[in-house]
Design brief:
With 436 residues, this protein is an alpha+beta fold. Among the domains are: 137 residues, no CATH class; 142 residues, Adenine-n6-DNA-methyltransferase TaqI, Chain A, domain 2 (Alpha-Beta Complex), CATH 3.90.220. The protein is built from 12 helices and 20 strands.
């Protein structure tokens, strides 16, 4: 099974599903599915104007909702060039112009209209030079992006380590060295803590705690009371929520309680187990969230939020259930955490906030660089594929084996043999299932 994506063109469906929460929705009866061979163009007729088009490197089948066009003539690597060309903004604009429908959600690029689109057609030698140059540039840019993504992982790991060492007492933030004396906490995940610290159950630090519910009926939504779901938790302060409920919902459903500003909310279900958020205003929560409200005088909420964030792996370890594990409110009530003196809690909260702020600034810079690299790659491909940049001389000077591939122990990539044509009208429409 193959899929046509906006991001990459034609890909194996199993690889696409492996990176998402979606499930295979294809029919078991594949008799109506269409055959795709290496070099065939496949596109989503409803999304071609958004870039869901590509030349396939694989042999496989696609859903009847896709259109398959087969080139009439073969050449060594001509269709590697057209794969780049068809994924440029200029081609997407032309696909949009040729699509028909009442609204954008219904626009459809029919096979007969696809075949009327004109295309620039370089000589075979120039197509080969363009493909050679773009493959080389794509590998180089991809290497830069992977290095930046690795930096993101390192920055996040650094933040977690710094905060975990501080909030669990492994390091005295005043001296950046261990505390003078330690004692065993009696908690496996915590180990030893400074001798002057205490260890208490989480619920004992707050006067109120509990979960929430989901009102039954759309009429209870759309109000002005924030309603927190686990997806709204950001390990920081919750400024906005996806949905809000009405005062009538709070009055109707006894399990739908309002928690005051400053309350600590912890996710209990699925992949978000252990994620946290502090309320910036009074709000309700759903049944997947556990709220701790009205902290006692010796409780700095920001510090204990950092502790729970550091203990996320332990909370997940204690979860139960199959594909959708969860932790219980009872577990969170009895979860034991370190309790330093209030003055130290303030310092530790400040350290955690500062570390998070510095990491956010660094991550923002890295993400901007990644966005610029991707934008540069898209613009470079568009300019080269449409002839705005002549790369014949540059392609001729490239090494036979890319040094990057030698460093990574990779074999030199070979272009998949594609087919070439002078215009898009040089296609056989193979969209009919009989051809498969």
């Amino acid at each position: 099974m193959l899929s046509v994506t906006i991001a990459k063109g034609v890909v194996h469906q199993e690889r696409l599903l492996a990176d998402s929460s979606k499930k295979d929705s294809s029919n078991r009866d594949r008799s109506a599915y269409k055959l795709v061979r290496p070099g065939d163009v496949a596109y989503n007729k409803m999304r071609a104007w958004q870039g869901a088009v590509g030349v396939s490197r694989y042999k496989g089948i696609v859903s009847p909702a896709y259109v398959v066009q087969r080139p009439r003539h073969d050449s060594p690597d001509g269709w590697a060039y057209y794969h780049h060309l068809f994924r440029t903004p200029a081609f997407a604009k032309e696909a949009e112009r040729r699509s028909h429908g009442i609204t954008s959600d219904m626009w459809s690029l029919r096979p007969e209209h696809f075949r009327l689109i004109y295309s620039c057609s370089p000589l075979p030698s120039e197509r080969a030079a363009i493909v050679r140059f773009l493959d080389y540039a794509d590998r180089r840019i991809g290497q830069c992006i992977r290095a930046e993504e690795k930096l993101i992982e390192l920055l996040e790991e650094q933040k977690r380590t710094v905060i975990h060492q501080a909030v669990t007492g492994q390091v005295d933030v005043r001296t950046s060295r261990p505390h003078p004396t330690y004692k065993y906490s009696g908690v496996e995940w915590l180990g030893h803590v400074p001798a002057h610290w205490g260890v208490r159950k989480l619920h004992s630090l707050f006067r109120r705690c509990g979960s929430g519910t989901t009102p039954s009926g759309d009429g209870y939504f759309g109000g002005d009371i924030p309603w927190v779901m686990s997806g709204d938790l950001n390990d920081g302060v919750i400024q906005t929520t996806t949905r809000a409920v009405t005062p009538e919902a709070v009055g109707t459903f006894t399990a739908l309680k309002r928690y005051p500003e400053g309350s600590l909310v912890i996710a209990m279900y699925g992949a978000t187990i252990g994620k946290t958020g502090r309320l910036s205003r009074s709000a309700c929560v759903n049944q997947a969230c556990f709220a701790l409200a009205d902290p006692r005088p010796d409780c700095q909420v920001g510090y204990f939020q950092a502790v729970v964030n550091s203990a996320r792996s332990e909370l997940r370890r204690q979860s139960f259930g199959g594909g959708q594990p969860n932790i219980s409110a009872q577990l969170l009530r009895g979860f034991r955490v370190p309790v330093p003196p209030a003055c130290e809690q303030i310092r530790l909260e400040s350290l955690a906030t500062g570390a998070a702020r510095r990491e956010a600034a660094a991550l923002g810079a890295v993400q901007r660089r990644i966005a610029l690299l991707r934008e540069y790659r898209h613009r470079l491909i568009a300019d080269v594929a449409t002839g705005k940049l002549d790369v014949r001389e540059a392609a001729a000077s490239l090494p036979e084996v890319d040094p990057l591939e030698m460093e990574e122990g990779q074999e030199k990539r070979k272009s998949t043999p594609y087919a070439a044509a002078r215009t898009l009208s040089a296609f056989d429409d193979v969209s009919q299932p009989t051809d498969a």
